[in-house]
Amino acid sequence: MIETPKNLTSNILLGMFLGFVVGSLLYYLSFFSESFLNFTKVYVFNLGSAIFINLLKLLIVPLVFFSLVSGISSLTNMQSLGNITLKTISLYLSTTAIAVSLSLLIGSVFKPGAGYSSNIAPPDQLPKGQGIYETILDIFPSNIIEAMAQNQMLAVVFFSILFGFALNKTNHLTNNFSEAFEKLNTVFMQLVIMVISFAPIGVFCLIGKFVITDGLDIFQEAFKYVLLLIIVLLIHAIFTYSVILKLFTNLSLLTFYRKMKDVAIFAFSTSSSAATIPVTLKTVQNDLGVNKNVSSFVIPVGATINMDGTAIMQGMATVFIAQMSGIDLTLFQYIQVVILAVVTSIGTAAVPSAGTITLVIILQQFGLPLEAIGIILAVDRILDMLRTSVNVTGDAAVACIVANSENLIDKNLFDK
Ligand code: ASP
Question: Whose CA is closest to atom 6 on ligand 1?
Answer without folding.
Answer: 355
